[in-house]
Amino acid sequence: MRSIPLWLFADRRGDDRRGRTHLVVTAALAALFLAVLVRTAWVCDDAFITFRTVDNFLNGYGLRWNPAERVQSFTHPLWMFLYAVPYAVTGDPYVTSIWLSIVVSMLAFGLALWTVQDLWMAIAGAFLLLSSRAFVDYSTSGLENPLTHLLLAVFATAWFRRDARVFQAALFVTGGLITLNRQDTLLLVLPGLIAVGVAVGVRRFVFLALLGAVPVVVWESFSLLYYGLLVPNTAFAKLNTGADSMELFRQGLTYPRDSLDRDPLVLPITVAGGALAVVRRRAGALPLGAGILLYLSYVVIIGGDFMTGRFLAAPYFLAVLTLIRFRPTSRVMAPAVAAGVLAAAFAGYDKPVFASGRDFGVDDHIDAKIDRITGIADERRYYYPDTGYLRVSSRGGGGATALHEWADTGRRYRHERRRVVVSGIIGFVGFYAGPDVHIVDCFALTDPLLARLPAQPLWRIGHFMRRLPEGYLATLSDGGNRLVHPEIAALYEDVRHVVAGPIWSVARFESIWRLHRRSANVNHEYEADRSACDVYLSERIPS
Question: Which residues lie closer than 8 Å to 18 by C-beta, 6 or more apart?
Fold first, then answer.
């Protein structure tokens, strides 16, 4: 039998046979990715923070975490609204999350491969993605990563066709949607948007910028009016901590090092994609490379994250999109790259992510799931024994409603008709407790007062514990202001006006102005109920 000539894989825009070959191979790779997603699909506790807000919204309580307070507890408005559509139909938070994430991730994967001109490079890119734990893990999980990946795939597709005016408009619209999906991911595409603006001239740049800003302006206007803030409450909780910036920077440096240990291909490929685009300026990808490196720098500066790989998945995906656009210099180069990637995927991991199965993480020691020194966790390894799709599906009819012991804790709070509980674990607990239970979050992600108070000196990245000011629980229970510390009591009055007062009142707008100018002038030693927030975890709060 004659061997297939390599030129068949060089350019999908050729004859019909090359087009069919490209279609068949892309479909096969997509089917492989679907199989991997089904085997690895899971949901994390943090996703249920958004799910509770969506459930409250659909039940008439508004976009709120606790119905009594207008607080934005989610960082991804676009993903939240997208999730709300199928959830309104299914009423099942788990199944909705799993299959919405799979569908969106499949679209991102398919678009990334289909638009690549050289099929061998597309194959290499597919295996780069399939071998990455960061990319695969956060292609589900319930967080916004799948939509970020899809929007980046759209952006990259438009970028390499940016000479056409319609694709210039698509770049800015997609940039706006990326920002709406998660504000800090704007850094990935910002250099590209600026580069297009310089190329098209001031007048058209202004027009395109205004066009792209429409969804962001609409949301931010609503956010300022409804929540009284332009950023999520979580931003205050994680950035307004009083933590030393150099400590955060040192912690940030551990994040890529952790990735090298757990997911060895991700950091080298991400840096290589960014650096090659900047240094070689091939295919006009310099701004994409600059965006990748800018985002990586930002991740290090803020201290990284407690979820291994989560903040590296998006720049890795964009780096892969950039690398596979580079045209091979010879007909043998692209197949060699594809073979090298496949070999590296197997050589770099004791067990490739696409070999993950039903028992993933079940027998692993806790030290394999959470690094005690850095505080960085392998989240899928931690949660998969409880929320892995293969495991939940095997439990039968009640599987999706018996996800985790923390969900049982929330159901118990609902059954006992608790009024106020305090917890540092709020996803499963909050969702299953229901809207009648007011959850006080020790880490302040969902609490508008605690987010404005300094964190405790000892912290884990992403978890900045606050102490409960003396009188706070009594204040929440009876609706008065029983806070002992005068500065905190005054701050709470402004907070209460903003999150619970009439939206259109003059006093509320004055409070919004004051909250944007200052927080309470106290240190972490302020008077607290007992000694620390964790005293009040779970069952230690009277109903």
Answer: 8, 9, 11, 12
Helical pair 310-323 and 145-159, crossing angle rounded to 10 deg: 20
Alpha helix segments (H runs only) across 59-92: 77-90
Would residue 311 count as lying in a domain?
A: yes
Two tokens, residue 310? 């989560």
Confidence band for 309, pLDDT divided at 50, 70 and 90: very high
pLDDT on residue 328: 60
* 8 Å CB contact between 474 and 484: no
Give the structural domain span for 500.
406-540
Rounded CA gap, 185 and 426, in Å? 25
Measured between alpha carbons, how far is residue 54 from residues 43, 81, 398, 469 in Å? Answer: 16, 8, 22, 29
Please, which residues have CB within 8 angstroms of residue 419's CB and are 6 or more apart in sequence?
Answer: 436, 437, 438, 477, 543
Dump pLDDT digits (tens) for 428-472.
999 999 999 999 999 999 999 999 998 888 888 999 988 899 899
Task: State the number of CA atoms in the 13 A half-sphere of 138 facing the CB.
Answer: 24
Question: What angle (nearest 5°) sits at the alpha carbon of residue 16, between those of residues 326 and 333?
Answer: 30
Count how many domains the chain has: 2
Other beta carbons less than 10 A from residue 348's beta carbon: 14
| Three-state SS annotation for 433-485 | HCCCCEEEECCCCCCCCHHHCCCCCCCECCECCCCCECCHHHHHHHCCCCCCC
Same domain, residue pair 91 and 195:
yes
| pLDDT score recorded for residue 416 | 94
Q: Is 70 exceeded by the pLDDT of residue 510?
A: yes
What's the rounded Cα separation, in Å, for the pair 330 and 230? 51
Is 338 or 224 the better-scoring residue by pLDDT?
A: 224
Give dist(CA 505, CA 69) in Å, integer: 16
Task: Compare 524 and 277 and report the one with higher pLDDT.
Answer: 277
Domain stop point among 355, 388, 421:
355
- Element housing 514 (H / E): helix 506-517
Residue 312 lies in a domain: yes
Q: Supply the pLDDT for residue 536.
A: 43
Q: How confident is the model at residue 356 (pLDDT cuts 50, 70, 90)?
A: confident
Q: Residue 436 forms beta bridges with which residues?
A: none
Rounded to the nearest 10 degrees, what angle do helices 245-262 and 310-323 cross at? 60
Query: Residue 537 above 60 pLDDT?
Result: no
> Largest Cα–Cα distance of the chain, in whole Å?
87
pLDDT tens column, 423-435: 888 999 999 999 9
Residue 506 and residue 497: Cα distance in Å, rounded? 10
